[in-house]
What we know:
By secondary structure, the protein is α+β, with helices and mostly antiparallel strands. The chain has 10 helices and 28 strands. The longest helix has 16 residues, at 374-389.
Amino acid sequence: MYKAIVTKLKNVRPHPNADKVQLATCHGNQVVVGLDSKEDHWGVYFPCDGQLSHEFCHANNLYRDKTKNKFPDEKAGMFDDNRRVRAQRFRGEISDGFWVPLHNFGFIYVSGLDVEGFEFDEWGGVPICNKYVNPNTIKAAQQNQGKKTRIAKTSIMFKEHIDTEHFGKNVHQIKDGDLIIITEKLHGTSHRVGNVLVDRDLNLFERILKRFGVNINEYTWAYLNGTRRVVLEEAKSNATQFHDPTIRDKAFKLFKDNLRKGETVYLEIVGYESESTPIMPSVDTTKMGDKEFTKSYSNMGDKKHMVYSYGCEPGKQDFYVYRMTMTNADGQSIDYSWDDVVKRCNEIGVKHVPEITRFRRAELVAKNQDLSDDRSFDENIIDLVDIYSKGSSAIDNTHIREGVCVRLESGLVPRIYKHKSFEFKVLEGIVKDSGIVDMEESS
């Protein structure tokens, strides 16, 4: 769910190519701010891929079209009619999101926003922001509403994958004893398979006995198959699926009869659905406005488009595990450590997402004593993670990485956070601008 975040500006500095704006950092992201912005100024950060509300844009003269602003005779803003918050470059410098000072909320006449890390999408009953969804996806979602689908059997043990939070706003979660493991985040479609307890179909005799108080075993172990949120029927389904069901069947067969009771595996399916259809849409790299980028990553025949192929030939796909859990009959889950995930993948004979590096906080501090205080460490670890998020995929150097996952491990509860590369976020925006329907958003 998209939210705005209350935060202070850090590292306010001159823009090298513009004298009327500055650069600053918030939640590990570089933003463009006004000349009146100062170090540690309170404000609100809107991450990219969001949409500001009309009420907020109107009140703060943020529309490019002056007629839509509250004060049309004053200076106009930079937002188009769709009010979208983008990742983009401004005079050669990254602008990853949008930051405004707290006084921009004065039109609501409500105080109390100055709480570091507070997240919200409305304030004082006024809508402020939401996740951006392109018009074609909204239309598809409206068409899907009310459609009847056959619901597959499910279980409280078969958990949906957690929504992974952003690393930048959770960097303070790193503790001295944590093992920090960075893995590649793959751009595909999520899938899950579990060996869990489900309701057993009782025969007539068993139902009669149950009515007379006889204790009947009502559960049985079974394999469940699913997308990120939808449970599918074994090997076939009439339920809503986001992609060609054959790729789901292939994923299911990899793990059928190979999981321990209570195990659920979470994986990414990458590559192609068919000879002509990639799982994730290709993108026109020329719209980046960077000839070197296009030269490096236009891996399709037209020398313009990039497809997230992950080494797969057209019509082929691959499967990479990124998480495994053990869940009891009460629905309580424990995550496997990353090393245990790797071990189980090797035992089953399946792939896991690539590990890029691992280290501990103490190791970084030992190499650079300037990182011993929390603020210096937080700033430098964000920069380091950002470096690891960029460049070619470790699986296929013909396209970029989506980003990385930062895994913090100590004790029984690993913490996992995501960090997408700036280039990926720009390309993701280009895909949305093209009008392609996001099937997971529309379902």
